[in-house]
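We recall that each integer encodes one residue's backbone shape. We quote one record:
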Amino acid sequence: MVRELNFENRKFVIGGIAVTIIVIYLIRLFTLQLMSDDYKKNADSNAFRKDIQYPSRGLITDRKGRLLVYNEPSYNIMVIMNDQRGIDTLDFCSTIGITRDEYIRRMDDIKSKKSYSRHTPQLFMSQIPAEEFSMFREKLFRFKGFSIEKRSVRHYAHGMGAHILGDVGEVNESDIEEDDYYKSGDHIGKLGVERSYEKQLRGEKGMRIMLRDARGRTQGHYQNGKYDKAPIPGKNITLSIDMDLQALAESLLQGKLGAIVAIEPSTGEILCMASSPTYDPRILVGRERGKIYRTLSRDPHKPLLNRAMMGTYPPGSTFKLSQALIGLQEGSIDPQIAFPCHHGFNYKGLHLGCHGHSSPTPLVPAIGTSCNAYFCWNLYRLLSNKRKYGSIQAAMTRWKDHLVAMGFGYRLGTDLPGEQRGMIPNADYYDKHYNKSWNPLTVISISIGQGEVTATPLQIANLAATIANRGHYYIPHVARSIQGSSLDTLYLRPRHTMVSPHWYEYAVAGMRRAVLSGTCRAANLPGIEVCGKTGTAQNRGHDHSAFMGFAPMDKPQIAVSVYVENGGYGNVYGVPLGALIMEQYLNGHLSPASQAKAEMFRNRHIKYSSTER
């Protein structure tokens, strides 16, 4: 009886195993025939060869139509792993100038990518210049599975504008995952305009379907090219940058750390944006791009950093114009009220110094002489007005809201990647920092652009443009026009501040006075009514030298900011460099005397210690 039961159990076990095997085979058969496209890929790869046709990338010109970026031919070496067998690797390596170890490494890299397929062309080597390509083309028939893909490489016409123009490099895995337009070996804008306008510049790929025989030989276009698709070239972009102005700005900053920004107030178009140190954009082209980029990224002076919109600095006395306008709007000052200045602001044992000038002084002369005491009194009265605001926290919130409306504390939204926001403290910040035990004297240094306040040179230039426009600005941008399309309306709408336009006339009058008889006398240009404001921002080492201004006074065409790290007083570097920029743009050239001055500043370098970088 036991033996019969064991036999019965054994029968069920064997039957179950047989059924399981049959089910596994059925599932595998279903997967191969219906779910997997491996056989289809094999069949297609035997019958067809799909050649991607790459579009030419859009050209980039300056505001006068002068070419800044264009394309030159180059070639990629592609490989289909399923076809690559039986080649003489030593001959192959010597032909293209690589070692056998590098050949093996490149093959391993190809196989490790997520997008890898044995049946489709994979990038083996990119950006082969035309002059190096001819020998490989002659011997290509020996290397089965390898093919040539015609591409183009970016060429930057001048060794300037690197932070604006950016560069193009090979896509990474995240680029491919984010946008199915790209495949391994494609190129994408990495920085600057090349990055922010990538979709407009790249164009649309085409496709050429070639018919192959049983031996893999190309027989011609499939159905005479009926299903081929021609590539669509990228769109050309005209920038707002003036090439001559950009070149001058970069040359003036040689041997210094800092930035110069110029804006057309009526449009928000950026006329120049220079950051120092910089680099020649032509060096980030070709197969050595990665190596050179790593070298630049390790430079302690940070040449890859666009200080014009990524550098956040204390704005110093350039910030006083925003404080004057807030005070006028909120009623903490009026144009006639005068405050004493006994070599600075003195109240309840607190002293904040100032240089010597007449005292007491009303608003316009206070701007002209950059009186610290005047603007300290202004902020003290605003934050102390509990009758109007109820609390110092509410007053501080109102102060911050004004500054945000002027373009501070947040990114302006320019069309270049990487812009920083700067810092405008609010009541919560001080409540947390001082455990809610603070008063106007605690934060008085923010009234003169010191303390916790920071801004970018771009934001300071935007303040100058806002004053030039008497109360509104356009988001600064570098694209002037795009072929076949219009600019984003974001850059075409004026942004109005919370200050009434008539109050801006007092700010303009003060800036004009600074040029005629105050701290900006070096910006006085013959025949041009320049308005300006110096800034000397305190620092751990030497002070930073800053300037902002615009011209002409009544129909402004240019607004400028200059910021030179550790340059000393504002009139040492800021004012003269700003004046040269305005003269070049408004007159189209520099006078002989100004040319000599420009040459002097080109040759004047600042020595930086490790703590001042």
User: Anything to note?
Assistant: The CA atoms of residues 283 and 364 lie 49 Å apart. The chain is about 35% helix and 20% strand. The radius of gyration is 33 Å.
